[in-house]
Amino acid sequence: MNKYVAAGERELFRGLDSYGIKGKTGEDLAEQFRSGDMYVGKGIFGNGIYVAYGSDKYDAQEYTGVGIEGAILRISLPKSAKVISYDKLIEEQNKDFLTSYPALQDPGRYAAFKGYDVIDVGATRNRPKYMVVLNRTTLRVQEESIPEVH
After folding, report:
1. How far is residue 148's CA from residue 150's CA, in Å, rounded to a whole number?
2. What is the tally of structural domains in the chain?
3. What is the Cα 75 distance to its own chain's centre?
4. pLDDT tens track for 33-77
């Protein structure tokens, strides 16, 4: 992972915990992210997998919970990924007649339909440095979880 980040790939982090999920640990969820069924969350910037980067990377650690067995994934985003800023996405979406279809009113679904891999929420203005991953296969995920974000 270090070589990819050193080569200029964006370093991302995702915190996981098992709060409210019976019989699974944070590490179970980390392994599911790496090789199992994809979990797509609902969020205010669109449905997808939320990851943190840059100055907000420490937010990922907050999602591991307090007193709960959690895990932190270290991820890199290859330069080949098709990324759109949230503002540009909303601009495109507002001009597109396809949003008359209820399924495409969510920014995440719309971006995935348009072929984007990732929405960069933090690319503009003072938004948190988050990305919404739509295509998990575009990511590189470190094989082992990390104990904390550095």
Report:
1. 6
2. 1
3. 9
4. 999 888 888 888 999 999 988 877 777 777 666 556 788 899 999
φ/ψ (deg, to 5) at 48: 160, -165
Q: Provide the residue count of the chain.
A: 150
Report if residue 148 sits inside a domain.
no
- Tens digits of per-residue pLDDT, 121-147? 986 677 778 899 999 999 999 999 887
Domain membership of residue 55 (yes or no) is yes
Residue 134: domain span? 2-139
Supply the Cα-derived Rg of the chain in whole angstroms. 15
- Tell whether 150 is covered by a domain: no
Which tokens belong to 133?
A: 């991953």
d(C-alpha 9, C-alpha 11), whole Å: 6
Please give the mean pLDDT across all residues of the chain.
87
Residue 145 within a domain? no
